[in-house]
């Protein structure tokens, strides 16, 4: 039995990023993955169409003092992460009993309503309140990840999750550039309305195409993992370290992104929306490219080395944006940070998938999404507070410090998934 499990783990590792699904597997999960890729791309495109420009929008709502703008930008940016982290266990519990597909539809509709309403905000408190509601009702990435993890053959889970990650990267690449162009032509309120409409469109392929397998009753993730052969060989500790790494990665990334816009506001007298759109588009395209190249690097060097190398390079990229001279350095730093973030994220998800028994994968990915949500909350909030006290460059440098902590956890707390 142990030999069979080892063979399966070897097949997992070979097939996780290196190749797509084979012809011997049933086509349903492939159709699901294709539909979810398009749906998640459209949803993330809708989010990123508007949210990179929150600091500029808050300025138009009356927040003019630079320190106050940094504070409100951080508060609005991190608000959704706190409520998402609080609600994720509840939505996960409901998903186990009612299905993961309904939870994804709920997340997209919740995001559509709240993003659209932000376009009607009267002041910064309205934006923060709606972001809190958005976090409590949305969470499309976590819901789509759980659906893919539960419905994909184990030997293809990591590959499928990497492909799903590319939809997020492409959406993040195209959304800000087109959103910046639309904002410069039509103003900022209409791009929030358009973002909400795109999230509604994203529900169509989920409702029409995706078919979910019958639900099975699973044990609590920690108990099941501890009872499994993998748990006995140290996978529980390895997964815990990887979940912590996902939280740290999200703090470093989500804390850094709003600061890019604030840094450009300090350096440019006009045209910030367009330049910020270019910066985020470059970051998204670089992230998509590095996600696509995951298979080549992980196949040659291993998941842990790729994640560790990407984390170390992320430190340098964020320092370039913080300390480099002029808007060009900010844009270059954002692009490089996107590239290295795009490599680390899929490697971490693949490692979690390969370390986790199939019957508790959805639960474990739910825990990982909670850590990501906490990071998504702490990053913008901490970055905004630090920028209001110490300045934008110092706050960006501290985000690089979080990326350095991530690299240390990977170096001393994570392990390469064994065949």
Question: How would you characterize the overall build of this protein?
Answer:
The chain has 419 residues and is mostly helical. The protein has a single domain, classed as Growth Hormone, Chain: A (Up-down Bundle), CATH 1.20.1250. Helices cover 83% and strands 0% of the residues. The protein is built from 18 helices and no strands. Helix 5 (100-118) packs antiparallel against helix 6 and helix 12 (235-267) packs antiparallel against helix 18.
Topology:
Elements: H1 2-16, H2 28-50, H3 54-60, H4 66-98, H5 100-118, H6 124-137, H7 140-151, H8 157-186, H9 189-208, H10 221-227, H11 229-232, H12 235-267, H13 272-292, H14 294-301, H15 303-323, H16 326-355, H17 361-390, H18 392-413
Low-pLDDT stretches: 1-26, 218-223, 225-232
Distance between the termini: 14 Å
Question: Which whole number gives the mean pLDDT?
Answer: 79
The largest β sheet comes out as: none
**Which class best fits the helix and strand makeup?**
mainly alpha
The count of β-strands is 0
The domain count comes to 1
* Fourth-tier CATH superfamily name: MFS general substrate transporter like domains
What is the CATH topology classification name? Answer: Growth Hormone, Chain: A
Which H/E pattern describes the elements?
HHHHHHHHHHHHHHHHHH
Helix content: over 70%
CATH architecture: Up-down Bundle
CATH class equals Mainly Alpha
What is the radius of gyration computed over CA atoms, rounded to a whole number of angstroms?
20 Å
């Amino acid at each position: 039995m142990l030999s069979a499990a080892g063979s399966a783990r070897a097949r997992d590792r070979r097939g996780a990023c290196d190749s797509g699904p084979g012809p011997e597997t049933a086509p349903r999960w492939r159709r699901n993955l294709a539909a979810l890729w398009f749906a998640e791309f459209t949803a993330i495109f809708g989010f990123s169409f508007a949210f990179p420009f929150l600091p500029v929008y808050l300025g138009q709502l009356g927040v003019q003092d630079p320190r106050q703008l940094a504070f409100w930008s951080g508060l609005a940016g991190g608000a959704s992460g706190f409520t998402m982290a609080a609600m994720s266990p509840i939505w996960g519990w409901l998903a186990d009993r009612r299905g993961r597909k309904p939870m994804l539809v709920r997340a997209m509709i919740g995001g559509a309503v709240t993003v659209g309403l932000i376009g009607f905000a009267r002041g910064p408190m309205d934006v923060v309140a709606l972001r809190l509601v958005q976090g409590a009702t949305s969470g499309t990435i976590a819901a789509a990840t759980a659906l893919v993890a539960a419905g994909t053959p184990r030997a293809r889970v990591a590959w499928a999750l990497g492909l799903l990650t590319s939809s997020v990267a492409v959406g993040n690449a195209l959304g800000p550039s087109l959103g910046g162009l639309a904002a410069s032509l039509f103003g900022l309120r209409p791009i929030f309305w358009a973002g909400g409409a795109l999230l509604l469109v994203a529900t169509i392929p989920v409702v029409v195409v995706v078919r979910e397998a019958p639900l099975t009753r699973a044990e609590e993730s920690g108990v099941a993992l501890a009872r499994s052969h993998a748990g006995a060989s140290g996978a529980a500790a390895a997964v815990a370290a990887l979940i912590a790494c996902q939280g740290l990665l999200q703090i470093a990334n989500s804390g850094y992104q709003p600061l890019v816009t604030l840094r450009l506001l300090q350096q440019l007298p006009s045209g910030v929306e367009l330049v910020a759109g270019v910066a985020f588009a470059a970051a998204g395209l670089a992230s998509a490219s590095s996600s696509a190249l995951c298979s080549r690097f992980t196949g040659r060097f291993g998941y842990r080395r790729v994640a560790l190398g990407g984390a170390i390079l992320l430190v340098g990229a964020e320092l370039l944006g913080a300390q480099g001279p002029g808007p060009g350095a900010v844009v270059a730093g954002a692009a490089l940070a996107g590239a290295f973030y795009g490599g680390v994220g899929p490697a971490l998800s693949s490692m979690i998938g390969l370390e986790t028994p199939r019957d508790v994968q959805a639960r474990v990915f739910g825990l990982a999404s909670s850590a990501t949500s906490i990071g998504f909350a702490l990053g913008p909030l901490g970055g905004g507070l630090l920028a209001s006290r110490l300045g934008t460059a110092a706050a960006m440098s501290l985000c690089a410090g979080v990326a350095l902590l991530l690299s240390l956890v990977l170096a001393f707390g994570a392990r390469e998934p064994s065949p």
